[in-house]
Design goal:
Length: about 375
């Protein structure tokens, strides 16, 4: 027997031992999670099991401790799945999302909560809000902005009529693929289905490769993938989850015009989130319609050196040509500097509502 085979045998034995050690440690962690559930329920029968700030702290700690060879994000994703499975032993997390099944929003929900979460597809963004407000789902996931197509106005408008709170965020890199079924005649594709935003994000590629194909907008990329199953001359633009769900094949991969195409999703819930250490706050402000309004709104943030990350304007529901401002900034509402800014803005505004302070997305 060669030295190479001896070393290989030794390495395999070492891997087997490590696998056993990992298995035992994961089981021990799961047992601890069950004990946490018993302690929480003994103290409060309505205890909250999923803690966004705690999860963010754990994942950031894992990434800081990681020494490779796996990169830190890959290690954090592994731990997220362990945490998801352990949390399911305490209480399975029900997550409503903008459906149908196979959408990027479902992919974002699973990225944030892990595969052990129970995902519930909803037909519209306002239905996601209602499901969470009613307590039928613990959390919801809704898109809020895309890096190339901008803000999702329906999500912002729904916040104006809801008491729901933002509990977290997740950013998903969006990769679009051109998909067909096993019966599609690939040289005869004359119709392409997709969501209007996906068409916009792949416009240049489509103009170059399928300039004469009919582009048919549908309610979601998952719906596009479903339609392709029944037609021999059509294709769909969708992601990997929809392709897997409907058994479609790739004609072309990553056809989005921008290589950095990403969508930001918000995690919505009913509870306030304590400080995690690296946080973001979202507010909606209605200002009086008078000269210098925008300067008066933004000046306290500049003076206190609070970092604004997003500013959006939407028409007010209360008057013609009045507007409300949606603002995201770094920091938590319980931090002294942030609290001071919010107090000043409150005095200058007609109305201010804190939509939530929550951990900045880890993955």
């Amino acid at each position: 027997m060669s030295d190479t085979s001896i070393n290989l045998d030794e390495l395999r034995q070492r891997i087997d031992q490590l696998d056993s050690d990992i298995l035992n440690l994961i089981s021990e962690r799961a047992s601890c999670a069950q004990q946490v559930a018993h302690v929480k329920l003994a103290e409060d029968k309505d205890a909250v099991f999923y803690r966004p700030e705690r999860e963010a702290q754990v994942l950031r700690r894992i990434m800081a401790l990681n020494k490779g060879p796996l990169d830190s994000e890959e290690m954090a994703r592994l731990f997220r799945e362990i945490m998801s499975a352990c949390l399911a032993l305490e209480q399975p997390v029900k997550v409503a999302y903008l459906g149908p099944e196979g959408t990027f929003t479902q992919q974002a929900a699973l990225k944030h909560f892990g595969e052990s979460a129970v995902s519930l597809p909803m037909a519209a963004i306002d239905e996601v809000f209602r499901e969470v407000e009613a307590g039928a789902a613990h959390y919801g996931v809704v898109p809020v902005e895309n890096s190339t197509e901008g803000v999702v106005n329906h999500t912002l408008d729904t916040f104006m009529d809801s008491s729901i709170k933002i509990c977290g965020e997740v950013v998903l890199r969006i990769h679009h693929h051109l998909l067909v079924s096993e019966t599609t005649r690939r040289d005869k594709v004359s119709r392409i289905y997709s969501h209007p935003q996906s068409f916009a994000q792949c416009r240049k590629w489509l103009d170059a490769h399928y300039p004469h194909a009919e582009r048919v907008p549908v309610s979601s990329n998952a719906e596009a993938a479903k339609l392709v199953k029944t037609e021999w001359h059509s294709a769909a633009i969708a992601g990997d989850m929809a392709a897997k769900l409907y058994g479609l094949e790739h004609i072309a991969e990553k056809i989005e015009d921008s290589p950095d195409n990403s969508t930001r999703f918000l995690i919505i819930g009913n509870q306030d989130v304590p400080m995690a250490g690296e946080d973001k706050t979202s507010i909606v402000v209605a200002m009086r319609n008078q000269p210098g309004t925008l300067h008066a709104l933004l000046e306290p943030f500049h003076r206190h050196q609070i970092d604004l990350t997003r500013l959006e304007t939407r028409p007010s529901r209360t008057g013609v040509w009045n507007y409300v401002f949606f603002i995201d900034f770094k920091g938590h509402r319980d931090e002294p500097e942030v609290a001071a800014v919010l107090e000043e803005v409150q005095l200058r505004a007609a109305e201010l509502r804190v939509l939530g302070s929550y951990p900045i997305g880890v993955l």
